[in-house]
Amino acid sequence: MKTDTLIKNEGMEILSKYLGLVEAERFIMLIQREPFDYTKWQENLFEDMTIEELAKKADEYVKNNNV
Q1: Is the pTM of this model over 0.90?
Q2: pLDDT value at position 67?
Q3: Residue 46 — very low, low, confident or very high, per pLDDT cuts 50/70/90?
Q4: What Cα–Cα distance (Å) separates residue 27 from each residue in 15, 19, 24?
Q5: Which of 27, 32, 30, 31 is nearest to 12 (CA)?
Q6: Positive or negative CA dihedral for 19, 20, 23, 26?
Q7: What CA–CA distances, in Å, run from 14 to 48, 56, 67?
């Protein structure tokens, strides 16, 4: 199991890679500013995708990120 520090560092690296440092910091501020229920948020995250589309995206992610 990863430590909290490692998870925070990896999360910030990922956000910075895809959003840039400024937008990543802005994202964190937005999340902290309002009550955030991850469980409710993720329930609708992939609702417009079929299982096949989701599996394809997961495969592409693994292939492109050497996971």
Answers
A1: no
A2: 65
A3: confident
A4: 9, 9, 5
A5: 27
A6: positive
A7: 24, 20, 14
Over residues 49-62, the pLDDT tens digits come to 888 998 998 898 88
3-state secondary structure 19-43: HCHHHHHHHHHHHHHCCCCHHHHHH
Residue 44 scores a pLDDT above 70: yes
Q: Identify the residue whose tokens are 């690296």.
A: 13
| Side chain identity at residue 10, one-letter code | E
Amino acid in position 6: L
Q: How far apart are the first and last CA of the chain?
A: 17
Q: How far is CA 8 from the centre of its chain?
A: 12
